[in-house]
C-alpha cells in the first residue's frame, strides 16, 4: 500500500489559492485579494502565504506587482486542480535545478571541509536507512530529503542554510512526486554514496565532482522524461 505523502503548509495554501481562482472563475489579469485578506481567508500566517505565492509566481500562475497587488497570470496554461502540465513542470524543475546547483553545491564544498564526526555518523545512518527503504521497495523521498538537509547543516553556514530553506517549497518539488512520479530520481542513488564518501574523506574536489554527476543525472532525466 502506498504511503500518503505529507504536504507542507505553503503547498496546501498554494492549492487553496488555485482553488479560489477556479471557484471565482478568475481570468488572466484579474486581481487576487491582498496578502492580509488571504491570510484571514485561509487562516494561515504571512510567511506560509508568501512562500505559497513565491511558488505560484515561479510557475507563472500569478504575478506579484510591488505596490499594486497580486494578479492571475495564465489560467489556461495550468491545471489548477493541483498538477502542472508536464512540459511546464519540466521547465520549472530545470530552473530550480540551476539554483540548487549553485547553493547546494556550495554547501557540499563547505561540508567536505567542516563536517564533524557526529555528522558523518548521522549521514551514514541516513544512507543505511535509505538503502533499507530502497531494498524494501518503499518510498525514499523523505529520507533522500533528510540526507540533503544533513549536508546543508554540515556546511556550518547558517546564512546559506537559511537561503536554502527560504525556497523550501520549490526545493522539495524534487522529492515530492516530481512530474507525478515518486521514483523519478532513483537513478541518482549511487551518487549519494560517492558524494558522501568525498565529504566524509574531507575531499571537496571529489565531493563536488560526484555532486555534479548527481545534478547532471537529474537534469538528463527531467529533459528526457
Automatic annotation (TrEMBL):
Q: Which GO terms describe its molecular function?
A: DNA binding; DNA-binding transcription factor activity
- Top-level lineage group: Bacteria
Q: Which InterPro entries match?
A: GntR_C, TF_FadR/GntR_C, Tscrpt_reg_HTH_GntR, WH-like_DNA-bd_sf, WH_DNA-bd_sf
**Which parts of the sequence belong to the HTH gntR-type domain?**
7-75
Q: Does Coiled coil count among this protein's keywords? A: no
The UniProt keywords, alphabetically, are: DNA-binding, Pyruvate, Transcription, Transcription regulation
PROSITE patterns per UniProt: HTH_GNTR
Q: From which organism does this entry originate?
A: Cohnella lupini
The protein depicted here goes by the name GntR family transcriptional repressor for pyruvate dehydrogenase complex
Which Pfam family, any one, appears in the UniProt record?
FCD
Amino acid at each position: 500500500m502506498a504511503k500518503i505523502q505529507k504536504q507542507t503548509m505553503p503547498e496546501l495554501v498554494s492549492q487553496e489559492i488555485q482553488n479560489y481562482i477556479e471557484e471565482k472563475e478568475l481570468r488572466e489579469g484579474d486581481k487576487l485579494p491582498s496578502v492580509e485578506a488571504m491570510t484571514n481567508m485561509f487562516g494561515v500566517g504571512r510567511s506560509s502565504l508568501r512562500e505559497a505565492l513565491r511558488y505560484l509566481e515561479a510557475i507563472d500562475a500569478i504575478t506579484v506587482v510591488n505596490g499594486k497587488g497580486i494578479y492571475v497570470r495564465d489560467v489556461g496554461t495550468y491545471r489548477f486542480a493541483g498538477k502542472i502540465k508536464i512540459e511546464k513542470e519540466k521547465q520549472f524543475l530545470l530552473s530550480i535545478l540551476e539554483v540548487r546547483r549553485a547553493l547546494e553545491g556550495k554547501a557540499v564544498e563547505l561540508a567536505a571541509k567542516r563536517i564533524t564526526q557526529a555528522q558523518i555518523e548521522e549521514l551514514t545512518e541516513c544512507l543505511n536507512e535509505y538503502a533499507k527503504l530502497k531494498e524494501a521497495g518503499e518510498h525514499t523521498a523523505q529520507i533522500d530529503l533528510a540526507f540533503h538537509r544533513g549536508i546543508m547543516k554540515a556546511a556550518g553556514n547558517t546564512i546559506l542554510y537559511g537561503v536554502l530553506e527560504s525556497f523550501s517549497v520549490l526545493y522539495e518539488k524534487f522529492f515530492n512526486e516530481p512530474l507525478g512520479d515518486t521514483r523519478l530520481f532513483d537513478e541518482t542513488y549511487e551518487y549519494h554514496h560517492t558524494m558522501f564518501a568525498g565529504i566524509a574523506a574531507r575531499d571537496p574536489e571529489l565531493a563536488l565532482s560526484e555532486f555534479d554527476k548527481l545534478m547532471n543525472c537529474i537534469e538528463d532525466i527531467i529533459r528526457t522524461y
